[in-house]
Amino acid sequence: MPHDPQLRPLPRLIFASRWLQLPLYLGLILAQAVYVYQFWTELVHLIEAAFGNAHALETLVKSIGYKGETLVSLNETVLMLVVLGLIDVVMISNLLIMVIVGGYETFVSRMDLEGHPDQPEWLSHVNASVLKVKLGTAIIGISSIHLLKTFINAANYDEKVLMYQTIIHLAFLLSAIAIAYTDRLLAPAQSH
């Protein structure tokens, strides 16, 4: 007996409700645009400061929370903190792409990208479990950048802030390990 592809009204409504997530993914795309703008603004300030623009240097110093001697030119610490900030924006942007593309593909609708030359490698085997692990590792990377920025600028932070940021980072790390371990334990059971 052939399977009837038509759903009854209630299951059809429930299944169609997945499209309510579409505005959320579109909103994340707008957030991505804000991150692109922030990245370019910081990059322009960095280039201007490298060429001696005092206002750009002052803006950078304020944005990274650097305190210390009055700067006349860009020093290595400020440069490192700004570049880490740029890397942080890129990593958060990567996280957004994983959530937007992977979430849409997993929970809303197929994108039919098979064979497309720009299809992300990870998308071919994405599911909710893989997405959780990828997001966990991305969050650890972002947390690592924040922690490194804090340690480079440690003189401007209270000892408690340094301790709590380290503890929070370790909690992210342990959570990601636990998620990956749980998924690995469940993987053999799911393959049967």
From TrEMBL:
| Compartments it resides in | Cell membrane
Family indicated by similarity:
Belongs to the UPF0114 family.
Q: What is the lineage of its organism?
A: Bacteria, Pseudomonadati, Pseudomonadota, Betaproteobacteria, Burkholderiales
- Name its species: Roseateles saccharophilus
Query: Domain of life, per the record?
Result: Bacteria
State where it is primarily located: membrane
Q: Which keywords does the record carry?
A: Cell membrane, Membrane, Transmembrane, Transmembrane helix
- HAMAP family xrefs: UPF0114
List the transmembrane segments.
20-40, 78-101, 135-155, 161-182
The annotated topology with respect to the bilayer is:
Multi-pass membrane protein
Instruction: Report what the protein is called.
Output: UPF0114 protein J2X20_000502
Q: Which InterPro entries match?
A: UPF0114, UPF0114_bac
